[in-house]
Amino acid sequence: MMTTLINEIRIQRIANQAIANRLDQAEWKLAEHRAASIRERNQPPLDPLGATSNPQSTGLFGTPKIPSARSGRYTGENSKRPPP
Predict the structure, then answer these.
(1) Mind listing the pLDDT tens digit for each residue in 31-80?
(2) Domain-located, residue 71
(3) Structural domain span for residue 24
(4) Contacts of the segment 29-35: beta carbons below 8 A, 24+ positions apart
(5) CB within 8 A of 70, min separation 6: which ones?
(6) Within a domain: residue 53?
(7) 11-33 burial by CB neighbour count: b if 16+ within 10 A, else e?
(8) Is residue 56 part of a domain?
(9) pLDDT tens, 2-38?
(10) Which of 31, 39, 67, 81 could make an S-S bridge to 74, C-beta 3.0–4.6 Å?
């Protein structure tokens, strides 16, 4: 009889440990979910005017920021710069 009680207590301890492990995992997942939710809320809002994500596409007043031959930053075949 004593052996049966000891075995039942051991089985109950194992079950309790399994439940505690599941609870720890659930708390961890909840903490991760809350952190992700906070990160999402802290992201800057999107531009309501629909600005594009390409920083070179438009400048102030929607003017394209394309380097010209005069700026010296563009040296393509259509450039007006004399060859060196």
Answers:
(1) 999 999 999 988 887 766 655 555 555 555 665 566 555 555 555 555 55
(2) no
(3) 1-44
(4) none
(5) 80
(6) no
(7) eeeeeeeeeeeeeeeeeeeeeee
(8) no
(9) 899 999 999 999 999 999 999 999 999 999 999 999 9
(10) 67
